[in-house]
């Protein structure tokens, strides 16, 4: 036997030397949930260790993450039913919870990179990502709302705008609107291949944003499809996206690799709430070693081709020196 691949695995020094993929704090994006009130930090029951923060608590959380080397945050609002309506008007109201939170984070921590979410669902009385009329999602009318929301977020100081709604044409629509209003420096991270997934369940608990009727299958993608991801990604590229996102991550590693091989833009992957909840539940029962499972999952998402990983594990990973 001339070739013995085990020689390159014989010591930690050699294993490190030949390691093909690395995971660094700069690859991680931490999603954070915001809620009304003062000194509130309510744990999401289906996501142990993840909280809805009032704005004052959010600022403390951002500060402690920055100290750990975690620089990039994706913010999501949890809103009372009473402020929701059919047209998601709360999403661009001048002094809304979400816009205040963005402004305060950027004022106190200009070095933090703030990603903001563009979609109607947290603000919609229908719990959908678009305007609903007679059970149908109205694509082009929704673009107008997404545009207003994006501009309001850019005004508040967003570094990167992330449309998660899956309406057709939204990246180009938002890009043109931002450019026309002096925000050509604001980036767009597009949820390009976002699948209609069971793994969003805990997130919808966190925001109380589940659809009140129907499902999201007329806009989010069929989990059976790969080719369709190429269509979505090429449109987003032509429309001016700066990042292409695949979501969820773990059940879609093939899609991450497909986009990585076919496009030049950096790929982001969203290690979603349900993926987090599974690991936490198993670890709590002693069925999995949390550190090993989490680092293996994140490394696999990197190996598949993602530069950036949105993950609820981000703070744990850095606080416990798992990488
Ligand atoms: C909706 C949105 C969802 C997530 C991010 N933005 C859920 C959905 O489409 O219903 C899910 C994130 C997660 O599960 O962690 N615009």
TrEMBL record:
GO biological process: protoporphyrinogen IX biosynthetic process
Reactions that this protein is recorded to catalyse: 2 5-aminolevulinate = porphobilinogen + 2 H2O + H(+)
InterPro entries: ALAD, ALAD_AS, Aldolase_TIM
Pfam families, alphabetized: ALAD
Entry-linked SUPFAM superfamilies: Aldolase
Pathway: Porphyrin-containing compound metabolism; protoporphyrin-IX biosynthesis; coproporphyrinogen-III from 5-aminolevulinate: step 1/4
Active site: 194, 247
Listed EC numbers: 4.2.1.24
UniProt keyword terms in alphabetical order: Heme biosynthesis, Lyase, Magnesium, Metal-binding, Porphyrin biosynthesis
GO molecular function: porphobilinogen synthase activity; zinc ion binding
Recorded GO CC terms: cytosol
Repressor in keyword set: no
UniProt keyword Ion transport present: no
Class of enzymatic activity (EC top level): lyase
Residues at which Mg(2+) binds: 232
Family membership noted in the UniProt record: Belongs to the ALAD family.
Subunit-structure text: Homooctamer.
PANTHER family in the record: DELTA-AMINOLEVULINIC ACID DEHYDRATASE
Official protein name in the record: Delta-aminolevulinic acid dehydratase
Annotated source species: Hufsiella ginkgonis
Gene: hemB
């Amino acid at each position: 036997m001339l070739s013995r691949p085990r020689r390159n695995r014989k010591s930690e020094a050699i294993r490190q030397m030949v390691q093909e993929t690395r995971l660094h704090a700069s690859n991680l994006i931490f999603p954070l949930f915001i809620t009304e009130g003062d000194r509130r930090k309510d744990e999401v029951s289906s996501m142990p260790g993840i909280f809805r923060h009032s704005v004052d608590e959010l600022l403390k959380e951002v500060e402690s993450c920055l100290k750990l080397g975690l620089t990039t945050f994706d913010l999501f609002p949890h809103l009372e039913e009473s402020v929701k309506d059919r047209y998601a008007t709360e999403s661009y109201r001048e002094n809304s919870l979400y816009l205040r939170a963005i402004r305060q984070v950027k004022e106190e921590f200009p070095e933090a990179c703030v990603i903001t979410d563009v979609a109607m669902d947290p603000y919609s009385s229908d719990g959908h990502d678009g305007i609903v009329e007679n059970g149908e999602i109205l694509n082009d009318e929704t673009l107008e709302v997404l545009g207003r929301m994006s501009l309001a977020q850019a005004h508040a100081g967003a570094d990167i705008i992330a449309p998660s709604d899956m309406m057709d044409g939204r990246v180009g629509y938002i890009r043109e609107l931002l450019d026309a209003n002096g925000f050509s420096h604001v980036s767009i991270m597009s949820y390009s291949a976002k699948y209609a997934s069971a793994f969003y369940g805990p997130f919808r608990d966190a925001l109380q944003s589940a659809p009140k009727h129907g499902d999201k299958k007329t806009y989010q993608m069929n989990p059976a499809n790969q080719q369709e991801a190429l269509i979505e990604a090429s449109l987003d590229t032509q429309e001016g996206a700066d990042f292409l996102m695949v979501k969820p991550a773990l059940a879609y590693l093939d899609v991450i690799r497909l986009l990585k091989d076919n496009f030049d833009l950096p790929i982001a992957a969203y290690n979603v709430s349900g993926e987090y909840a599974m690991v936490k539940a198993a670890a709590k029962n002693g069925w999995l070693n949390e550190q090993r499972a989490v680092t293996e999952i994140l490394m696999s998402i990197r190996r598949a081709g993602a530069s950036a990983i949105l993950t609820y594990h981000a703070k744990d990973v850095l606080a416990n020196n798992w990488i």
